């Protein structure tokens, strides 16, 4: 029997026991998840309606006074929000830790990381986009289940066809024909995309019913399993790194689909043959898919450029830098942007529901909060630009290991990502204002047009930058595009404040033009010139310290002596940061007072 199984796997190209273990891993997990799904389904019978009435009646009889306190309380909402936040943070932290382990297990196999994280991820996202984008846009326009819901089930054959086409294209590539690891890794990515596409009817149901928590929980659970599967697979078969990432993607798709169907199975409306397919919805689905392809190519422009112009080694360097460089955006900047968007949305809506005097107060609060929050993220960006750029090699040695830390290109690209983080902070906060105060679809539409124009600019300049600066060129092109988007958002804000001032009785003599308002905003949100000089001096000093650290070539990287030298380098950076804060504290007194006023306004 064993020899028969061995001959079977040899016939399809599996000649390594570790490769066999990799393929068994998702199969075992799939069986486990299927049993879990079946147990959950049998334990949760579909509601009959009478049971709910009996339960409600019994509850009412047993607790006659509970009717007075039956409405949801603020405490319960707070607990749900807090638990969701804690869950999200825990998933991100565990994913980050597993990513560190994965980088260490990969060692110096950087090309494999590039092929998986750039080329195969591009293949995956393209399959998923074709499989679901059009369905999500067309089927969330209406909630009429009986008329259009049958179209949702078309997402399964569409995702199957897209995965098959991706499989055929992948097998025809030259790399897949020469590299068995890349070949099997691509096959696993196609299977993972197909598994994730199978869950699209359940995802569409959650979108139509606004069940955001279910979808977020499914994605979080699947991400958690994916990170663990990556580490396990790399432990089992380190000589098949691309396949390891492919196995993790299959695990993600399996867990995601099982979780989604387990939560929504008894709520789903199955395909009704008598209803047929709604022609209008099918046409709109196709139309949205075709229209969205341009947006998809713009979103994946960096991967497309790297896949076309850069080698696997450079792609791996970029993937590593992106994983570390996105930490600040995920953990720090994104929550700030969400809070700011909600704040501006509430203040702008309140200003339209009050008298003229209150409108002026809300307008001043809106402008003050805009200037203060943009200035805050600019300070954060300056810390990344001037200080963090000189500590990337130390960070890589500590987190990713000596092999990654000893690669000069990795530290250089990660330093470029630190500068890119500053541009992301600027763009994220200024665009959050646009989304927060936009009062018409035209405002969002013009922003979308601007994004498309910027995407075209990226497609033009990125190849030129890559040919001259290698992987750093992609980051530089992204910085240029982020700057253009930020400038557009600032012009929108200047126009908005100038118009609000005119509408609220500013008078012709007191009304400022958009150009003057733009100059006012730039002046108010810019850091103090003396503080900027301190940042420049700190950047120069920390850079000299980095060169001093790198000059000790006789000290082995990662040794005790090296860590002592690195500690001196880090202490100098800390002293520079403290010095900047000490200078900024008395000079930015108005800025500190504005932050305190915003915090008090938030509490009120």
TrEMBL record:
It holds the Pfam family Rft-1. Residues 43-78 are annotated as: Disordered. It is found in: Endoplasmic reticulum membrane. Pathway: Protein modification; protein glycosylation. The keyword Transcription does not apply. GO terms for biological process: dolichol-linked oligosaccharide biosynthetic process; glycolipid translocation. Residues 50-78 have a biased composition (Basic and acidic residues). GO terms for cellular component: endoplasmic reticulum membrane. It is a multi-pass membrane protein. The chain crosses the membrane at residues 17-37, 112-130, 151-171, 239-259, 370-391, 411-435, 447-466, 561-587. Keywords: Endoplasmic reticulum, Membrane, Transmembrane, Transmembrane helix. PANTHER family: ENDOPLASMIC RETICULUM MULTISPAN TRANSMEMBRANE PROTEIN-RELATED (PTHR13117), PROTEIN RFT1 HOMOLOG (PTHR13117:SF5). Intramembrane glycolipid transporter that operates in the biosynthetic pathway of dolichol-linked oligosaccharides, the glycan precursors employed in protein asparagine (N)-glycosylation. The sequential addition of sugars to dolichol pyrophosphate produces dolichol-linked oligosaccharides containing fourteen sugars, including two GlcNAcs, nine mannoses and three glucoses. Once assembled, the oligosaccharide is transferred from the lipid to nascent proteins by oligosaccharyltransferases. Belongs to the RFT1 family. This is Protein RFT1 homolog. It comes from Seminavis robusta.
């Amino acid at each position: 029997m064993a020899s028969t199984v061995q001959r079977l796997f040899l016939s399809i190209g599996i000649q390594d026991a570790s490769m066999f273990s990799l393929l068994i891993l998702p199969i075992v997990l799939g069986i486990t998840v299927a049993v879990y799904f079946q147990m959950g389904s049998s334990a949760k019978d579909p509601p009959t309606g009478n049971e709910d009435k009996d339960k409600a009646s019994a509850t009412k009889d047993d607790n006659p006074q509970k009717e007075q306190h039956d409405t949801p309380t603020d405490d319960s909402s707070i607990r749900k929000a807090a638990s969701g936040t804690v869950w999200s943070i825990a998933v991100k932290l565990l994913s980050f830790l597993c990513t560190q382990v994965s980088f260490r297990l990969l060692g110096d196999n950087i090309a494999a990381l590039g092929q998986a994280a750039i080329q195969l991820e591009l293949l995956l996202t393209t399959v998923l986009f074709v499989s679901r984008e059009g369905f999500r846009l067309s089927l969330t326009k209406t909630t009429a289940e009986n008329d259009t819901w049958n179209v949702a089930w078309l997402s399964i054959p569409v995702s199957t066809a897209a995965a098959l086409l991706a499989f055929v294209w992948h097998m025809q590539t030259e790399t897949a024909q020469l590299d068995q690891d890349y070949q099997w890794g691509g096959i696993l990515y196609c299977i993972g995309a197909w598994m994730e596409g199978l869950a699209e009817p359940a995802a569409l149901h959650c979108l139509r019913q606004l069940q955001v928590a279910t979808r977020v929980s499914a994605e979080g659970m699947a991400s958690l399993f994916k990170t663990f599967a990556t580490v396990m697979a790399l432990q089992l078969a380190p000589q098949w790194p691309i396949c390891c990432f492919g196995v993790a993607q299959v695990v993600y798709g399996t867990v995601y689909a099982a979780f989604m169907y387990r939560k929504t199975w008894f709520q789903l409306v199955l395909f009704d043959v008598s209803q047929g397919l709604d022609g209008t919805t099918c046409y709109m689905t196709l139309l949205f898919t075709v229209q969205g392809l341009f947006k998809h190519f713009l979103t994946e422009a960096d991967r497309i450029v790297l896949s076309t112009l850069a080698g696997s080694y450079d792609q791996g360097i970029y993937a590593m830098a992106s994983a570390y460089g996105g930490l600040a955006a995920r953990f720090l900047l994104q929550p700030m942007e969400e809070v700011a968007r909600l704040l501006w949305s509430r203040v702008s809506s309140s200003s339209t529901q009050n008298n003229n005097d209150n409108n002026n107060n809300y307008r001043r609060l809106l402008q003050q909060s805009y200037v203060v929050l943009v200035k805050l993220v600019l300070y954060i960006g300056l810390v990344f630009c001037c200080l963090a750029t000189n500590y990337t090699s130390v960070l890589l040695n500590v987190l990713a290991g000596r092999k990654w830390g000893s690669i000069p290109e990795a530290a250089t690209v990660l330093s470029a990502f630190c500068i890119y983080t500053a541009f992301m902070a600027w763009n994220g906060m200024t665009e959050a204002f646009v989304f927060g105060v936009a009062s018409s679809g035209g405002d969002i539409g013009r922003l979308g047009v601007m994004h498309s124009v910027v995407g075209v600019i990226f497609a033009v300049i990125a190849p030129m930058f890559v040919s001259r600066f290698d992987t750093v060129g992609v980051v530089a092109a992204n910085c240029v595009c982020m700057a253009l988007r930020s400038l557009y958002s600032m012009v929108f804000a200047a126009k908005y404040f100038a118009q609000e001032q005119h509408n609220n009785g500013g008078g012709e003599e007191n009304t400022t033009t958009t150009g003057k308002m733009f100059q006012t905003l730039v002046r108010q949100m810019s850091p103090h010139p003396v503080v900027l000089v301190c940042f420049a001096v700190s950047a120069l000093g920390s850079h000299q310290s980095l060169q001093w650290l790198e000059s000790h070539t006789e000290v082995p990287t990662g040794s005790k002596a090296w860590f002592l030298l690195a500690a001196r380098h880090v202490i100098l950076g800390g002293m520079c940061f403290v010095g900047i804060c000490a200078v900024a504290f008395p000079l930015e007194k108005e800025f500190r007072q504005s932050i305190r006023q915003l915090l008090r306004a938030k509490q009120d």
